Amino acid sequence: MSNDWVALAIEAEAVEGILDELDYFQILKIGRDAPLADVKAAYYRESRSFHPDRIHHLADPGLHGRVLRIYKRITEAYSVLRDEVRRAKYLVDVSGPQRAGKLRYDEQSEQERKKAREEELGTTPNGRKLFTAGLAEQQAGRLEAAERSFKMALLYEPSNARFKEKVEEVARERAAKR
């Protein structure tokens, strides 16, 4: 193994040892306020350094595994940081008190949060529209119209527990006002 490969092996071992403690900005070696052009340049720089094809001819399976793991994390970092919405959310997550648990962007938990938001506001377009209208009516104090909107939303989504709760809540509010 030449000196270049020895240096890569040493660096890969060191990086892999702390990989689970690094956020995406640290993995790409950029600042948190780096513009998209810098994110892209850092991605290309780091991916060239740790691309698995660079070492395919070496017989060290341990090095192959380390480099592949690092390369995957570099790619993951780039896919999150190049998207402004995901980057903003990730930045909030890694700046918060639960940083250690938020170092990796979790697509599955993001899908679960999206599904929960949909369930809260409705899964059908008409259900969402009527539920949102009901919320506006309730906030304006027009409880009869709010209850009607929530009941109509239930026609589109009869099993939506949030819609049922709102119908009951508005009915209680109307009864309390009588």
Automatic annotation (TrEMBL):
Domain of life the protein comes from: Bacteria
Protein name (Swiss-Prot/TrEMBL): Heat shock protein DnaJ domain protein
Segments of this protein annotated with the region Disordered: 102-129
Record has Chaperone as a keyword: yes
Keyword Chaperone appears in the UniProt entry: yes
Classification via InterPro entries: Apopto_cytoskel_mod, DnaJ_domain, DnaJ_domain_CS, J_dom_sf
PROSITE patterns, alphabetized: DNAJ_1, DNAJ_2
Domain named J: residues: 23-109
Coiled-coil blocks: none
CDD domains: DnaJ
Biased composition annotated in UniProt, kind: Basic and acidic residues: 103-120
Keywords: Chaperone, Stress response
